[in-house]
Amino acid sequence: MKNNTLFEMLAEPNRRAILERLRRKEHTVGELVAASGLSQPGVSKHLRLMREAGLVVVRRSGREQLYSLRPEPLRELDDWLQPYRRFWSSKLDRLERSLDEEAAGPASIDKDKE
Length: 114
Hints:
It is built from 5 helices and 2 strands. It is mainly alpha-helical. It has a domain at 3-70: Winged helix-like DNA-binding domain superfamily/Winged helix DNA-binding domain (Arc Repressor Mutant, subunit A, Orthogonal Bundle), CATH 1.10.10.10. It starts with a helix and ends with a helix. Pfam families: HTH_5.
């Protein structure tokens, strides 16, 4: 899947909420409607778009259609983000040290100078 398509899917808050529910277990459209407060056509549209983007799969169980998360595209995104994560990790480590020093106050800084 192209990252642009995945970003488009994840940019929409209702789709993120649906994916979060599907991360835990598979659901029917009706269950997702009840949990989201969206209309049935609205949830169905989101699911169709996410299915076309490869984020969800559907299987039949009797008369029900059960939707579940397909994690592979998210792994691809995670792989793509890895170099950026390393960049931000070092920046956040420096920020944490700076905040710790600031929280310790001037007495701690003066002690280090002695």
